[in-house]
Amino acid sequence: NSIIMIHRCLVLLFVALLPQSSRGHFFWAETDQMDNHVDVTFSEKAGVPDKVISIMEGRVTKVIYITEPTNIVDVNVALNEDKTVLEGDLPQSEGGPAMVAGYLDFGPFMNFKDLEYSFGAQIYRSEADYDEFFVPLLQKSDKPLIVMRNCGGNKGTSYQFAVGGFPQEGTLGVCIYQKGGFEIGCGDFHSHQLEEDMETTSVVGRALRRGNVPKNLSIEISPAVLEEIQQGDNNYTNPTIFYAIANKTIADEASTDVSIAFASTSVYFGGPCKQ
Questions:
Q1: Would you call the peptide bond into 167 cis, given omega within 30 degrees of 0 as the criterion?
Q2: CB atoms < 10 A from the CB of 200, how many?
């Protein structure tokens, strides 16, 4: 599978280039079940605390809490006592859906012109929130962003997501993990798939584009993986936190500069959709 190879190559690339303590790590965010606290980890396995995040101290000091496109609150985050997680307290819920989002433009690093990280956690109140709240947020984003439906369609064998803020050119890789790093499934999506049913507008000052009508995409999983999830052999818990992470390598043919953009999100996954 090409996306698995791309992901492994990216990990190997980071193994070669990043400091020994931070090899193959990515940002992941999640809220607690009461939706009043956020944890951000920087680790190879999705959502697993790791002391490597201490190297990001001072670079990621806040996330934003979004309940409406125009209602955005800054949330301070700081290292916990064990120095394994960035954490912060969220505003009191108003009863509707919300998105917790963070961003780090790492800037030039080694042979890369830029490393760009976006990470988020979705707070659902109903299954309808995906179409009515989260997907519309993509239309407002000028940074890479991914959102995931909190339930599985097609008899529980597929997982739906939408992306925004990535450049249209090239292949987008997406993987879905259970918290702890168990791989649910991966897929790669080419530019013609992302462009379908979309209009694009340039974002001033950035080499990124965003879709006015984001296209819903999905990843199919094998019956064997589904059975393993259902049997609980992979420490599957209820409720279960799933993470989706997207990445795209961005090559500038004129300058030969290469950048990489990552975006991740988390949801408390509720199983087959009821609606």
A1: no
A2: 15
| Per-residue pLDDT tens over the stretch 161-174 | 999 888 877 788 89
> Which tens digits make up the pLDDT trace of 96-119?
999 999 999 888 777 778 889 999
Distance CA 210, CA 40 (A): 25
Secondary structure of residue 200 in the 3-state scheme? strand
* Closest to 145 in 3D by CA, of 173, 169, 164: 164
Quote the CA–CA distance of 31 and 262 in Å, as a whole number.
20
Q: Is the peptide bond before 69 cis (omega within 30 degrees of 0)?
A: no
How is residue 171 annotated by DSSP?
Answer: P
Residue 15 backbone dihedrals phi, psi, to 5 degrees: -60, -40
Q: Exposed e or buried b for every residue in 82-118, given b needs 16+ CB within 10 A? A: eebbbbbebeeeeeebbbbbbbbeeeeeeebbbbbbb
